[in-house]
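Lab channel / #folding
Pinned by the channel admin:
"Please post every new chain as: sequence first, then the structure tokens as a reply. Keep commentary short and put observations after the output so the thread stays searchable."

First post following the new format, from NK:
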Amino acid sequence: MKGGGRRGGGEYGRGGRDDGDGDRMMSQFAQIPTSFGHELRACLRCRLVKTYDQFRESGCENCPFLEMDKEHDNVANCTTPNFTGIISVTDPSRSWAARWLRIGRFIPGCYTLAVSEELPEEYQTVCADNNVQYVPPKR
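Reply from TO:
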């Protein structure tokens, strides 16, 4: 592995559990999908995977500013049923796969490996207004 061991400095060496906030990262988990059928959707910003009903009821735990739990049209606009693969992550800050997928700063949960659609422009503006980075999918 380049650069030595698994832990240490750099962007991902900030430590989820031992940074003075107690179990800050581990105290909150995203809902796990209640079924794995055609009703699954992925958030277009963070790629969290849940059912449509779960997004409608509790929104996206990583993207509360998209207000999916308040405005039902936001679920349809900010999520997609078109995605590739699912990965479950219990400790994103220590998972090499989560870092590789750029989800290492999100809360534990189920994520897709890739989405092919972009977040609509008006919601990209909402991200910018909330000082939250949006990275469009690679084409």
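NK: The longest strand covers residues 83-89.
TO: also worth noting, The helical segments are 52-58, 72-78, 96-100, 121-129.
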